[in-house]
Amino acid sequence: MSLVMLPIKENEQPPLDISLSSEDQEDTSWIDCSEELSKNCFSQFGELRKSGHLTDVIIKVEGREIPAHRIILAATIPFFNAMFTCEMIEAYSNVITLPNIDADTMESILNFAYSGRLKFTFKNIERLLKAAVRDYLQLTILSNRCAEIWKYRISEKNVFSIRRFALMYNIPQAVIDADCYIQQNFCFISKTTEFAQLDFTNILNILNWDQLHVDYEGRVFEAVCHWIEFDISNRLVFAPKLLTAVRLPLLRPAYLIDKVSRNPYFCNSMECRDLIDEAKNYHLMPERRSNFNSIFKINIRVCTEIPGNIYVLGGLNQIQPSTVEFYDPTIKKWKPSKVMTSQRTRVGVAVSNGKIYVVGGYNGSERLRCVEMFDTVSGNWVKLVSMFKRRSAMCATALGEHVYVIGGYDGTNALDSVEVYEIKSDYWAFGPPMLAKRCAAGIAISKGL
């Protein structure tokens, strides 16, 4: 057999044969470049608009003419899609005049259509939402994006504005986020001017929420007083209705008598006095509570027990820091607090009645006897009388009106000694020693033991 190679004619190329694997069942494959292509397309669309090439429609707003491309507007803005694809006069017009929208807002929305990007500020957000959502452009994607942005920028200063915008422009997720923020931070928000400026309907709605984060129903009563005080002459008439939103039967009897019944906003109103008397009866006749028929809600707020803050004190890096920070679970953030009066690590910590007691520890050169207390309400540190013995890595706990410090390490030996601090008298005494010396141990209290 002989092999003959035929010459290839000029300008004639041999056919290519790139066979797929024998395992492939089909003769076609797909290449997905959609993400990269989309980015390039947006970039090119913007360049075409800037240069004025291939534009086929003019959007006229406030006398300003803005060139654009029908295909881009129809693909990105539902309003224009309906206009250009239905049998409307505008579908065949080269100039579209839009009333009730300012030129800068329209320019921003067209930039969004061509680039997928839009700059929101609190100065332009209402105009953008009005044009994009409520009026006619039907850009619900913008309202959803607003909700995402607001969630992480919400504060006591803007929460009520955000809630109002969200209700006005039908952004349900933003309403939910605003409500959650108000509920979780009610004790602080209820003291602000923004809260006091709310109208009666909004205030009553908030006060009736079961989800308010309050440690005591008296916080709700104080919020009512703050709101009335802001405009007494016009708001005193709402006192009876607002008082029904306060769950008076849940207040302590002493608070009910001293703070509520003697308050000038309520004691001069017969209707308010009747409500207060009804709450008093709840306490005077506990045997009848099961049959208590009242206009008051008597179920406790869902969040009467506020999640406590988590405090981190001192510690060890290259030095023994005196810094303090705490985690607020209601807003999911760490915050700095006032520093301790002395640097230390391996301290003992106990909590009693909202006060944090820090005992002993190690400052890098010696074990310590010093003691200090942090008041979580005032945010101040106070030095207390020192322990008898220097110690670090001890156990510490509070029980009743006493702080117990057990064991630890004095720099040479583990300790079996126990010291007891009497909170009211600022006095230390020795307690019974343990049966064994130990440090860095654990401690727990169960049923007062």
Description:
Helix content is 35%, strand content 15%. The protein has helices at 34-51, 70-76, 78-85, 103-115, 125-135, 140-153, 159-168, 172-184, 186-189, 193-196, 200-207, 218-230, 232-235, 239-245, 253-260, 270-284, and strands at residues 57-61, 64-68, 95-97, 310-313, 324-328, 333-337, 348-352, 355-359, 371-375, 380-384, 395-399, 402-406, 418-422, 427-431. The strands form 4 sheets. It has a 4-stranded antiparallel beta sheet with strand order 7-8-9-10, with no helix packed on it. α2 (70-76) packs across α3, α6 (140-153) packs parallel to α8 and α7 runs antiparallel to α8 (172-184). It is an alpha+beta fold. Keywords: Kelch repeat, Repeat. InterPro entries: BACK, BTB/POZ_dom, Kelch-typ_b-propeller, Kelch_1, SKP1/BTB/POZ_sf. Pfam families: BACK, BTB, Kelch_1. Residues 55-122 form the BTB domain.
Short descriptors:
449 residues, alpha+beta, Potassium Channel Kv1.1, Chain A, Serine Threonine Protein Phosphatase 5, Tetratricopeptide repeat, Neuraminidase, 4-stranded antiparallel sheet, repeat, Kelch-typ_b-propeller, SKP1/BTB/POZ_sf, kelch repeat, BTB domain-containing protein
CATH class of the largest domain: Mainly Beta
Q: What is the total domain count?
A: 3
CATH architectural category of the largest domain:
6 Propeller
What is the succession of H and E elements? HEEHHEHHHHHHHHHHHHHEEEEEEEEEEE
Overall outline: flat
Keywords: Kelch repeat, Repeat
Protein name: BTB domain-containing protein
Domain BTB: 55-122
Pfam families: BACK (PF07707), BTB (PF00651), Kelch_1 (PF01344)
